[in-house]
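Inverse folding, one chain.
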């Protein structure tokens, strides 16, 4: 039986009377990679920040494994198993790649509050951090300072930090924005690999990438869901073509 792990019900968010998200309801099943697309101002990032807890809804509910998480603070949501990357790269720029990932892995360790344990003795944490760096293609850069990485590799590092907390649900907000085509392809391959073990919500400006990666696509326009379905259904939807692609 397919298991629903995340759900929104009649989710609405208004800013000073301007409705950015308007009565959005959807279910996310375990193992699904759901893409969210829409024109600028459609409400994609607002919806993303409602899911990760950085915004509180004006009305409506959010559920994670059936538990109401509406209004819960972001760090609690993270501890529950939801991790996110953002449009603006969010890393520790002055630290080495491995150290960036190590912090995330250690944050879930049972020994994280013990001040008498030396970091070098935490071999399990280091081993897992190295595994994650290999997984995202940064193994040969683990000793580089993060700020010296290319923009594409910083994106990969941010994904590595996100999965270092071993989330069940991974939220990715435009992970290929601003990177070169070759680096974007590297990011896409990492996401493809992660989708084998993680449930993912992907917001992406590149429609071709979403059509390639997503099992289900949800299209937003002016805060409302105008279409939802498999990639071939979305690409052939006349309303999507008219509103999103500008096709009459």
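Residues assigned per position:
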């Amino acid at each position: 039986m397919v298991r629903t792990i995340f759900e929104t019900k009649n989710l609405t968010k208004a800013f000073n009377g301007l409705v950015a998200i308007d009565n959005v309801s959807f279910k996310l099943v375990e193992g699904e990679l759901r893409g969210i697309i829409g024109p600028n101002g459609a409400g994609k990032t607002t919806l993303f920040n409602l899911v990760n807890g950085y915004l509180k809804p004006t009305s409506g509910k959010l559920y994670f494994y059936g538990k109401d998480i509406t209004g819960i603070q972001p760090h609690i949501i993270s501890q529950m198993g939801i991790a996110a990357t953002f449009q603006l790269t969010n890393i520790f720029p002055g630290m080495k790649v491995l150290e960036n990932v190590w912090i995330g892995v250690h944050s879930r360790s049972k020994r994280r509050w013990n001040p008498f344990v030396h970091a070098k003795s935490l071999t399990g944490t280091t081993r897992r951090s190295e595994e994650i760096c290999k997984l995202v293609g940064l193994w040969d850069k683990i000793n580089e300072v993060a700020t010296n990485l290319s923009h594409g590799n910083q994106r990969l590092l941010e994904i590595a930090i996100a999965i270092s907390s071993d989330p069940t649900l991974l939220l990715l907000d435009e992970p290929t924005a601003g990177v070169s085509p070759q680096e974007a392809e590297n990011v896409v391959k990492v996401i493809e690999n992660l989708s084998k073990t993680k449930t993912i919500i992907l917001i992406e400006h590149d429609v071709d990438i979403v059509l390639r990666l997503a099992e289900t696509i949800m299209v937003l326009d002016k805060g409302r869901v105008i279409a939802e379905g498999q990639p071939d259904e979305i690409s052939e939807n006349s309303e999507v073509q008219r509103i999103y692609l500008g096709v009459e």
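Residues 230 and 246 are 20 Å apart (CA to CA). The mean pLDDT is 89.
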